Amino acid sequence: MLSSIVKDHQNKQAIRKEKQEQKRKEAIQSANNLTQALVDHLNVGVAQAYLNQKKLDAEAKQLQTSATNFAKQTQSWLHLVESFSGALKEIGDVENWARSIEGDMRTIATALEYSYKATQETASSSTA
């Protein structure tokens, strides 16, 4: 009788230990699943941040290239405007020079006319 109670007790203990071991394994598995779910959730955020960073880097590089091209184009435009301005100044200088020459030619023409008239009057007075 005592030995059957002891055996019964040992069987119950073995069954409890087995249940306890099974629950421990389930708890470990649940903890692992939870940890994996948390890591996956965090990895999604990290992966998204990484992709966003890659996009930002690509866009920054493209912006840098566009800014450089724009600066070159602006320099080209400035050079073109300066050349145009210089050409306009030269045209203005040529126009001024032409006016100056025209004024000198009028003065010379007037002096020649005056001289011719004076010569004609002298010649008319001498023959008369």
From TrEMBL:
Region entry Disordered, spans: 1-28
**GO cellular component annotations, sorted alphabetically?**
BLOC-1 complex
Q: Which GO terms describe its biological process?
A: endosomal transport
Highest taxon of source: Eukaryota
Bias (Basic and acidic residues) occurs at 1-27
Q: Which PANTHER family match?
A: BIOGENESIS OF LYSOSOME-RELATED ORGANELLES COMPLEX 1 SUBUNIT 1, BLOC-1 COMPLEX SUBUNIT 1
Family label? Belongs to the BLOC1S1 family.
Query: By what name is this protein known?
Result: Biogenesis of lysosome-related organelles complex 1 subunit 1
* Organism whose genome encodes this protein: Ceratosolen solmsi marchali
Q: What is the lineage of its organism?
A: Eukaryota, Metazoa, Ecdysozoa, Arthropoda, Hexapoda
